[in-house]
Amino acid sequence: MSEHLLDVRDLRVSFDTYAGEVQAVRGVSFWLDPGETLSIVGESGCGKSVTVQTIMKLLPSPPSRIKSGSIHYQGRDITHLPDKAMDEYRGKEFSMIFQDSMTSLNPTMRVGRQLCEGIIRHQKATRAQAKQTAIELLGQVGLPNPEQAFRRYPHTMSGGQRQRVMIAMAIACNPKLLFADEPTTALDVTMQAQILDLMNGLKKKLGTSIILITHDLGVVAKMADRIAVMYAGKVVEYGDARQVFYNPCHPYTWGLLGAMPNLIQDVKSELYAIPGTPPDLYAPPQGCAFAARCPYAMGACLKGDPPKFVCSDGHISRCWLMDERAEEVMPPDGIPTLPRGGKQA
Ligand code: SF4
User: Fold this and answer.
1) Positive or negative torsion for Cα 128, 130, 131, 132
2) Which helix (H) or strand (E) segment is 67 a member of?
3) Per the count of CB atoms within 10 A, which of 132, 169, 246, 263 is most buried?
């Protein structure tokens, strides 16, 4: 039985479409303990959102389908739990902050009523109790004049205020696990910093674990205890935040870090971008999915999918460069030499 709060093992999720099977998630494994923040990083279409929506059972089936693997929550196998049984978990045990608050909130209902719905349903509260709790929550997430905010419609609020309402809805039932899918993407940097501080504060206060999906490494640096870097439906590098930021072992992670703007960069120099585009997941390549874009690709990369290599304790990379038979390469500036000859995990 799993000891972790959430334990995902070798999860594979596909979509059956008229054009064929899209292998969106191809063997993802990670775990999370109480009070921790795991950040899942990667480009659009790498399977980050599909992974968390599969855990929450938010994807319609068909077309989505869990092909194999397991999801354990507090030791219980919830991989194939029916939708009705999942209602016991969604909202109460885990909840989600979606990316776009404008489309996630119902534009025809006042925000207070939308907040009360979940409280009445999951906490069996009366309408008056739910209203009281909702106003307290709106105050807790930093909305000025919460009584007035309770009566407002979503379109009368700014993006930052709506995102705070989304956070209030997500924490309404004190969930143990919070999924945040790009919660700050639509916000300006000032509002982004405030929302991240708010989430960090709530994590400390309520002891909530967070799974944060983002493509912004600045957000990751501020929030994450551990990081899973995803590419083409797989976790290609996994480790604690310090390991992944200071000793990254996968060329894709090097590319992501290299694409971050920094203060010492010459303002006239072009920002680095990883060349090419991710592979088509209708027909994923036989070898390493990153090979077509990787400046270090070798013959072996085209033939076989790289296994997991252990870079250091708890730090894993799926790259043939870690194999002792691979030629030594020079990582980009500022990145330490690879610990080659790592054991396979
Ligand atoms: Fe590049 Fe090969 Fe490593 Fe893939 S396995 S990231 S192609 S070096």
Assistant:
1) positive
2) strand 64-73
3) 169
Does residue 254 have its Cβ closer than 6 Å to ligand 1?
no
Query: Which residue has the CA at smallest separation from atom 5 of ligand 1?
Result: 319
From the CA of 290, how far away is ligand 1's center (Å)? Answer: 6
Q: Tell me how far the alpha carbon of residue 307 lies from the centroid of ligand 1, in angstroms.
A: 11
Ligand 1 within 6 A of CB of 292: no
Task: Tell me what percent of the residues of the chain surpass a pLDDT of 90.
Answer: 25
Q: What's the sign of the alpha-carbon dihedral 67, 71, 77, 80?
A: negative
How far, CA to CA in Å, does 156 sit from each of 107, 109, 174, 218, 260? 10, 12, 27, 30, 35
C-beta of 297 in contact with ligand 1 (< 6 A): yes
321 Cβ inside 6 Å of ligand 1: yes
Over residues 205-227, the pLDDT tens digits come to 778 899 999 888 878 887 889 99
Cβ(251) – ligand 1 distance below 6 Å: yes
Burial (CB count <10 Å: 0-12, 13-18, 19+), residue 216: middle
Higher pLDDT, 267 or 154: 154
The tens digit of pLDDT for each residue in 92-111 reads 788 888 877 777 888 899 98
318 CA → ligand 1 middle, Å: 8
**What is the pTM assigned to this prediction?**
0.86
Distance, CA of 258 to chain centre: 21
Pocket test of ligand 1: the residue of 293, 301, 316 to mutate, having most ligand atoms within 8 Å of its CB, is 301
Mean local confidence (pLDDT), 247-256: 90
Q: Do the beta carbons of residue 318 and residue 234 sit within 8 Å?
A: yes
At 268 the three-state DSSP class reads coil
Pocket test for ligand 1, best of 296, 305, 344 (most atoms within 8 A of CB): 296
Q: Do the Cβ atoms of 91 and 122 come closer than 8 Å?
A: yes
Q: Is 150 in the pocket of ligand 1 (CB under 6 A)?
A: no
